[in-house]
Design a protein that fits this description.
alpha/beta, 2 domains, single chain, globular, about 230 residues, about 30% helix, Rossmann fold, six-stranded mixed sheet
């Protein structure tokens, strides 16, 4: 369970948002450019620090402004795929997927098992030994998603994860994400500008405007009358 009460003064507005995401639930964040969507993910990951509020994940405090708790990025066990995620070009696809597990000093047999599992799920087994520098944008995105999932995170966050994928690839990766979130029973946040992505992947939707949640509902209820959706 993710529970967050986020307050952050930004250059153009103040972000003021409460979030609750259950295990195996996918919450989609939508809104126009500059609405605060990516800022929310950066606050949760620890890349940005809230001015006030709290972040709790599975009952553990990751941030508490009143007590001074602020768990560092590397200790939060969050799988985060940024909008322009890249892989290490000199490493193979398998080595890229294994990178986070090696950093956590997992046993090599377990690493090998996990690499096999995740490259199969995101359909990049045929690329396992290819250097990442030779991949297309869509292939690179699949590697980034596999790498984020391979650490078996307590929270998965995806920022515009499907923009570099064609229709067929987008559908297969969405299915993989949905399956993995369900199997791991972890909360998931997805930022997207596509209503179709929200409908196909999400359980709930927040529409943000200048850091505030203007509407919450089911993906099937999109679009919403009177609410400006991104084009």
């Amino acid at each position: 369970m993710l529970e967050a009460d986020l307050h952050k003064q930004l250059r153009d507005f103040s972000l003021d948002l409460k979030i609750q995401v259950k295990p195996a639930e996918i919450l989609v964040l939508m809104g126009e450019n500059g609405a605060g969507k990516s800022t929310v993910l950066n606050l949760l990951s620890g890349l940005l620090t809230p001015d006030a509020g709290s972040i709790r994940l599975n009952g553990k405090s990751l941030f508490e402004s009143t007590s001074g708790v602020s768990v560092p990025v590397e200790a939060r066990n969050i799988g985060y795929v940024l909008q322009n995620s890249t892989a290490f070009p000199h490493l193979s696809v398998s080595e890229n997927v294994a990178y986070g597990m090696k950093a956590r000093h997992m046993h090599k047999d377990r690493i090998a098992e996990h690499v096999d599992k995740w490259i199969e799920l995101v359909d990049i087994r045929n690329l396992a030994d290819i250097k990442a520098g030779k991949l297309s944008g869509g292939q690179m995105q699949r590697v980034a998603i596999a790498r984020a999932l391979a650490i078996e995170p307590d929270l998965l966050m995806l920022d515009e994860p499907f923009t570099a994928l064609d229709t067929e690839s987008r559908q297969s990766v969405q299915e993989a994400v949905r399956s993995c979130v369900s199997d791991l029973k972890i909360p998931c946040l997805v930022v997207t500008h596509r209503v179709a992505d929200a409908r196909e992947l999400g359980d709930r939707v927040y529409l943000l405007n200048r850091g505030v949640n203007r509407w919450e509902g089911l993906p099937s209820d999109l679009p919403v009358a009177g609410i400006q959706l991104p084009s």
